[in-house]
Amino acid sequence: MSLLLCENNCGQEYDPTTEVQCRRCGHELGTPADDTPSTPPPAAAAPGVPTAPEPSTPTPSTRLVITVCGRDFTVADDEQIGLGRDLRFGSIAEALENATNVSRVHAMLRFADGRIYIQDTDSGNGTFIDGVRIPTNQEYEIADGQSLRLAADVPVGLRKES
Questions:
Q1: DSSP designation for 156
Q2: 3 state SS of 152
Q3: pLDDT computed for residue 14 by the predictor
Q4: Predicted TM-score of the model (pTM)
Q5: What is the rounded distance in angstroms from the CA atom of residue 133 to the CA atom of residue 120?
Q6: Which domains are present in the chain?
Q7: Three-state SS across 74-122?
Q8: Could you tell me which of 69, 71, 161 has the C-alpha nearest to residue 116?
Q9: pLDDT confidence of residue 57
Q10: Between β-strands 139-142 and 127-129, what pairing exists: parallel, antiparallel or unpaired?
Q11: In whole angstroms, what is the distance from residue 94 CA to residue 69 CA?
């Protein structure tokens, strides 16, 4: 089997029969590189400056339901949870136990005032908003309608409920 080079021109070789994401740059292998530089979603703005459309006014009973590997988990308003395979993350870690491309401590998700925030905690295979890898150790707001993915192939469903 011959190795191929990442289409994103980072120089990383990969085996197309076993790899779906570049280990160096996070590019989804087997897809053409975008000629324009990839730009991650904007970071959460300074207090009082929104980066996404204002959500409807949350009620105290607003909660977030995330779906990870087919299992639903509830995140209360003003709660932060860890996403990864570390056993400290409890049932989320159990849901991710077979997702070996997800780091043990992959990302932190925070739900506050009806808004969703994600921070990649220096994971090996990245955290993606709308298919764009976000830099590590910076918090980003996930706007309504945007998608969240851990590594190459672990989508995280996001649904707000009252």
A1: E
A2: coil
A3: 73
A4: 0.65
A5: 9
A6: 1-34 (no CATH), 63-161 (2.60.200.20)
A7: EEECCEEEEECCCHHHCHHHHHHCCCCCCCCCCEEEEEECCEEEEEECC
A8: 161
A9: 52
A10: unpaired
A11: 10
